[in-house]
Predict the structure.
Amino acid sequence: MGDQFLKQYRESPRSEFARELQDKLNGETVMQTQKTWRQNLMRWSPAFIAAAIVLALVLVISLPPTRALAQDFLDLFRVKKFAAISIDPARMKQLDKLNVDTEKLFADNVQILQESGKPVTVASVQEASARADFDVAVPAQAPQGAKLQISVQGAGAAVITVNVAKTQELLELAGVNDVKIPAQLDGAQITIRKPAAVLLTYKLQDGNLVLMQSPSPEIELPPGVELKQLGEIGLRVLGLSADEARDFANKVDWSSTFLIPIPANAAEVRQVTVNGADGLMLTSNGAARNGRSLYAKGDSVLLWANNGMVYAMQGNTNAVDLLEMANSVQ
Amino acid sequence: MSAYAFTPKMSAQNPTLRRFSAMTTAKSKTNWNAVYQRELPRVYNYFRYRLGDNALAEDLTAATFEKAWRAREKYQRDRAAFPTWLFTIARNVAIDHLRTHRAHVSFDALEQIPAPDSPHEAYTRQAELAQLGALLAQLNEHERELIALKYGAELNNREIARQLGMSESNVGTTLHRIVEKLKAKWEG
């Protein structure tokens, strides 16, 4: 007996086990994006910071100072509209190469009020509704033969304190040298509250179909914040010229718009209607930065909202089938 | 550069959207599917050699990958090779298990190994594996860990040394001694 015999004790894992575990990990990958607020807020790559500036500064709506003061912190941002903006892929690569340690840079600027915790797998839609505190909708036309996994992600909340100097530093690193963050924003606190979310994962042989639903997140704004101006800055980071950024900022309803930057070569974007509500269908064309893509060619994500709830459905199926299934959600 | 606006509605924290955003913005240079395919057999066999129970090995393998996947953004390629990081997690999972199930030394795995075609070969192999399992069960925890990392996880001596805080030469010497001990008992 020797070395070789010891090696012969090895065996391959059962294929069912390997497949089920991989499915579970893939499911958790989706949920992981919500896992903790600290990770979400502090793990951004430089490219995502560009989006973050749009999402946290642009997205967080511009309110006329007088109106905001009158309502005294009671103004809330709720997602009611959705916008996609086409970005030059070369600009995304530029931002990606900045290699900024954002965790260190913003370590003191994020306070977690409520950890959303780990996703919890539950046994039924009723249990998910009870945990998430809203009535979970299900597609009447669910995929046939699919195994359904239901997960609930708890609510979370965080406060971001604006640090003008650090944000300015990021802008300069991103090559935007002709704009200045308003000094009066320094120390302003933005509170983000994310309600619980429910994820229905339909496991199929050729991939998963996922429906996420949640009440709209809320962002509480301090009075006097003129975020339209900051929105323009975010758009500059994403590569728009000064004129383009100003023009776009003037067209967007900043009181309720969630903006998604999409590299021009990454996806087809179409406006659709889901149960009478406006929706956005994003279909990946398989183009990859860094040689790979999280989404295969043909993967679609459908986003829509209804009665204060926001929904996202994702799967490797054609857009027509995805839309039909979304229309059956009730 | 073009800009276009639409008017649907969506959550700022939507996980699917964030995943989609990740496609366009996040720095993702690791092919996690490939990592999974490559590392799954190694982690699984590490637990088999360590604990001698296929069902338990599956449970702990799943626990290891779930922990690793949840924390994978923390993995920094400049600090440690991925297997080193992954097996640090696996070893902690094993340690936690052994702490709470100290007496568990099952060798159910030996009965589950697919038999060769020939009945005689099947009998011989089953008998050999049963004997090997019994011998492995007689090793102390440190020796068993070394065998599991070497033959289950297929780590080289340098990687094992890093895991266990030993010198590479000491790993080689100790492994040689363990194998010789197993061999002596086997032939005895």
Summary: Residues 15-32 of chain A form the longest helix (18 residues). Chain A touches chain B through 104 residues (CB under 8 Å).
